[in-house]
Amino acid sequence: MILLQTSPDVQRSTIAAQMNRIGHHIRETIVEEARASIGESDDSSTGHAAGVPEAIPETQQEINEQADAAIRDLFPRIPNTDRRMIVEHAFKKVCAFPSCLDISK
């Protein structure tokens, strides 16, 4: 199975954006067949190569923006203060490996 994730800058007219915006899980072969039937056969609209995980954002601001967009998409009626508290608490970029702690860099 394939799970496609959209980002705020993806054009909303693509079939992938519409299917995954509401969270459907559809087999890859069915998606490919549907894309071929409407003439949208490549994954160039997602911005990264197929089968390769998307890179973790470099800055905390980018992480917060992506988390905020995902929460807004999943829970459109969530109050702003609650959403902000979730993003601040649950999406902190922290160092989990000893190599991150090297202060000589």
Write the layout of secondary structure elements.
Layout: H1 15-21, H2 28-38, H3 60-74, H4 80-90
Helix pairs in contact: 3-4
Describe the structure.
It is flat, with a radius of gyration of 17 Å. The protein is mostly helical. It folds into 2 domains: 50 residues, no CATH class; 42 residues, no CATH class. The chain is built from 4 helices and no strands. Helix 3 crosses helix 4.
Alpha-beta classification: mainly alpha
- Tally the beta strands: 0
Q: Determine the oligomeric state from the structure.
A: single chain
Discrete helix count: 4
Quickly count the domains.
2
Secondary-structure element string: HHHH
Shape: flat
Q: Which strand-content bin applies to the residues? A: under 5%
Give the fraction of residues assigned to helices: 40-55%
* Main sheet: strands, sense, barrel: none
How confident is the prediction overall: mean pLDDT?
76
In terms of per-residue confidence, which ranges show pLDDT below 50 for 5 or more consecutive residues? none
Radius of gyration: 17 Å
| Distance separating the two termini | 41 Å
Give a short summary of the structure.
42% of the residues lie in helices and 0% in strands. The protein has helices at 15-21, 28-38, 60-74, 80-90.
Labels describing this entry:
flat; mainly alpha; 4 helices; 2 domains; 105 residues
